[in-house]
Write a structure and sequence with these properties.
Number of helices: 4
Structural class: mainly alpha
Shape: globular
EC number: 2.7.1.-
Number of domains: 1
Transmembrane segments: 28-44, 51-73, 93-116
Strand content: under 5%
CATH topology: Helix Hairpins
Membrane topology: Multi-pass membrane protein
Radius of gyration: 18 Å
Enzyme class: transferase
Distance between the termini: 57 Å
Largest sheet: none
Low-confidence stretches: none
Number of strands: 0
GO molecular function: kinase activity
Length: 119
């Protein structure tokens, strides 16, 4: 049981490290908070909330994996290396893809609510 509880402490340390060192993670969290507030204001349905929360989780999780990959690549290849750069670029691309999809999902969910209320 102690080992199980320690795993949460280690995970929290990783989250704190990423939050303190990764500007993109902080920006994603600000965007997530903005979407959550907009969703509360717009009165999203349970399905819409589920989709929004899954998109937020996907982007944040991939940002954390990207951070781990960057730290690992820096550890094993401290000097510049073309292939190390490719690894970092591909990891960053995964976050970009998830963020773009999250943006599209947000537009699909929020646009009808904004334009119906605006008319």
């Amino acid at each position: 049981m102690r080992r199980f509880l320690k795993s949460f402490i280690f995970a929290a340390k990783g989250l704190v490290f990423a939050f303190q060192t990764q500007l993109n993670l902080r920006l994603h969290l600000i965007a997530a908070l903005s979407v959550l507030l907009l969703g509360w204001y717009a009165g999203l349905s349970a399905v819409e909330w589920t989709v929004i929360l899954l998109c937020i989780a996907l982007v944040v999780a991939l940002e954390l994996v990207n951070t781990a990959i960057e730290v690992l690549v820096d550890l094993v290849s401290p000097e510049w290396n073309h292939k190390a750069g490719i690894v970092k670029d591909v990891a960053a691309a995964s976050v970009l893809v998830a963020a773009v999809i999250a943006l599209i999902v947000s537009i699909v969910i929020f646009a009808p609510k904004i334009f119906v209320n605006a008319v």
